[in-house]
Prior knowledge:
Elements: H1 8-11, E1 23-26, E2 30-38, H2 44-66, E3 76-85, E4 92-101, H3 108-117, E5 127-131, E6 135-142, H4 148-161, E7 164-174, E8 187-196
Antiparallel strand pairs: 1-6, 2-4, 2-5, 3-4, 3-7, 6-8, 7-8
Helix pairs in contact: 2-3
Amino acid sequence: MAITKADPYRDHQAEYVATGDPRLVKTSPAKYVTITGHSEPGGDDFDHRVKVLYRAAQTILEAKRQAGHDFRLGRLEAMWWHKGQDKQTDHPSWHWKLLLRVPEFVSEQDLSAAKNKARDPLVRDVWLEIIDEGEVVQVLHLGPHERGQESLDKMREFAREQGKRFEGFHHEIYLTRPADVPPEKLRTILRQQVEPAPIAP
């Protein structure tokens, strides 16, 4: 009898529903392998850390598969925030956290074993983390990431109409990769945690 692979994206499909119109979505606490960084989006350090994250996650997957707990890796996600301006470039000082969702049965021991097998010392910066965003607004953004502000503005206005305000970090879920499709065909779920807005006196 075939054993169904655990698949975080499929098993929590309702949390990834998104269309061109913003909508409120309830999310559950999710376990991720994560790595953080500080650079311009898409730079060399960003790309390097994406590869390190995938290698660590793949090592965990192979070990769990051999132990009879097969699963599929979630899609690449990232949380973004900035702290003022970069003094050298005068651009926003971007910070980010790269995420790959994994099943609940992935443990700290599994990650530790993967780190021990890794050759790249940067793997020491990979961690397991549970993130609980609760209620979010999300929308499907079509096209280049540089035009994401258009979708964010729609999300912010929708949240205001629902009596909500943005909270937490900007969250992106990459359904397509820039290496696979032209910029105009990129598909990205934009997600933003929200909370009730204070009532004006």
